[in-house]
Amino acid sequence: MKDRFSLNHSMFWRKPVSDLHAEIANRPSLKRVLRPIDLVLMGVGAIIGTGVFVLSGVAAGLHSGNALPLSFLIAGVVCLFAALCYAEFATMIPVAGSAYTYCYTSLGEIWAWIIGWDLVLEYGLAISAVAIGWSGYFCAFAGSLGFVFPASLSHPFGVDGGVINLPAVIIVLCLTVLLINGTQKSVKTNAVIVGIKIFVILLFIVLGAGAIQPANWQPFMPPAGWFGVFSGAAIVFFAFIGFDAVVTAAEETEDPQKSMPAGIIGSLVICMILYVIVGIVLTGIVPFSELGTPDAINAPIAFALGKIGYSWGAMLVSIGAICGMTSVLLVMLFGQSRILFAMSRDGLVPGVFSIIHPVTQTPVNVTLFTGIITAAIAGLFPLSIVAELVNMGTLVAFSIVAFGVIILRWQQPELKRPFSCPGVPYVPLLCMAACVFLICHLNTLSHQLFLIWLFVGLVIYFLYGVKKSANRQNGHVAIPDPIPCRIDPGIPLPALPETGTRGPLSGTNQGVKTPVRTVGTGEGDPCLPFVR
After folding, report:
1. Can you tell me whether residue 433 is helix, strand or coil?
2. How many Cβ atoms sit within 10 Å of the Cβ of residue 217?
């Protein structure tokens, strides 16, 4: 192949933003039914769950100690930097696909595939991990009511006599059916669940505030010092994963230019405030050393309430945890299906995943596929390292999106940006640096497993995606770098690029190659070459 090892190869081609809008106009698209409040609730629904109900105990007991609120704050600020970058892309490119689509427009197809494959890992394992956690809380709650699940039906094969984790399988499949029946029904269900778990968290804060013992906060810094604080931040980062799921709903949002920033940033800020307060109260009620014990590490908030005599409050927290994880599962299933939907529409995965049902106007095939695969993983496998592996995938995604903001600002400054990330390039660079810093504090095994997953994804891309890509089939050309607008007579003009028509790549190109150059005439004119 002529361009096999060339930067002109189709895997480096970028998809023009105008093409994305044209695809939505000319192809069957998803129904726009989501309002700003729906997006905020969707974000809160995805964020508040396993992170605060489970991992707060792991972080405090084993890493951060009394500095747990500081770890929450650090992780939240990193996510806030990423949220500003996501908001710029989401308002400029309000289509399904999240970070995958953003990378396609700014960095090229190969990077879009890498980030899409990364997001498949993030959402897929997050769904399975949360389903396993949901099953544990549900079985414990059912046991308190006198109904005990047999070990063979509540544990995966080979663990404590288990055969299949049936509750985990059932909850994933039930939520899959709910998503298939329509986005609007799913949103209403999510709103109810979010209300319940916010009430439970506020209840914990109110009950716990009266039992705080300031002596428990001494010493504030953990034995490992700042290393422990940052390690804790890398762990509780999982507690903030979910706000990025909001952007996967861009194609189903009313007035996305205004709604998306409110949904992304609003949900993140609400959760960050709640998390910091929970961290303060939790470490004030119970000495952090007790939060790392077997009795507390899987249900630290319920343990803390039981410790101060509110056994009924502990039961309510268990109910809230079940509701919290249910809404996380719902939004993660939604996000996973929309990312695969976008990749399918681009030809990188089979087209059957981008078929929209004519009645429900939802991508039924990909939703069903996602539900079945993640239910099987949740039912059959124990995933002890999932939280850190999911964090790895998310941090990589955030880094690439932040880099994409810088690149697209440079390549196409003339694009309309209803919301602009402030402080570019400094905010995206801070986001990238913070993400890399937290990645370095994750488990070495997580790094190794992530590299294996990435290798498998690249094999699939070169065997299937690069050949079936819609970008390649349509003959889209690479978007060249901009020609400088300000012309200095003393400096020779750059070589004139040739830009082909969008004819087929195979056979003789029937179009005429026309050299195209535009020359800037005013302030801020980007002077991009364009395709005739």
Report:
1. helix
2. 17
203-213, pLDDT tens digit by residue?
999 999 989 99
Give the separation between CA 212 and CA 217, rounded to whole angstroms. Answer: 10
Q: What are phi and psi of 35, to 5 degrees?
A: -105, 170
* C-alpha atoms less than 13 angstroms from C-alpha of 532 in its C-beta half-sphere: 10
Q: What CA dihedral angle connects 265, 270, 272 and 278, to 10 degrees?
A: -170
The answer to whether 406 and 198 are in contact (CB under 8 A) is: no
Structural contact between residues 100 and 112, judged by C-beta atoms closer than 8 angstroms: yes
Burial of 355 (0-12, 13-18, 19+ CB in 10 A): middle
Q: Domains in the chain, start-ordered, CATH in brackets?
A: 34-469 (1.20.1740.10), 483-532 (no CATH)
Using DSSP's 3-state secondary structure scheme, residue 253 falls into: strand
Compute the distance between CA of residue 455 and CA of residue 118 in angstroms, rounded to an integer.
11
- pTM for this prediction: 0.72
Is 444 strand, coil or helix?
Answer: helix
What are the residue ranges of helices labelled H in 96-149?
99-106, 109-144
Q: Is residue 308 exposed (0-12), middle (13-18) or buried (19+ Cβ within 10 Å)? A: middle
Distance, CA of 315 to CA of 289 (rounded, Å)? 23
Would you tell me the crossing angle of helices 426-440 and 226-236 to the nearest 10 degrees? 100
38, exposed or middle or buried, with CB in 10 Å at 0-12, 13-18, 19+?
buried
pLDDT digits (tens, 9 = 90+) for 420-446: 889 999 999 999 999 998 888 887 888
Which residue bears the tokens 């729906």?
38
- Strand 514-515 and strand 498-499: the pairing is antiparallel
| Spatial distance between the Cα atoms of 438 and 227, rounded to a whole number of angstroms | 11
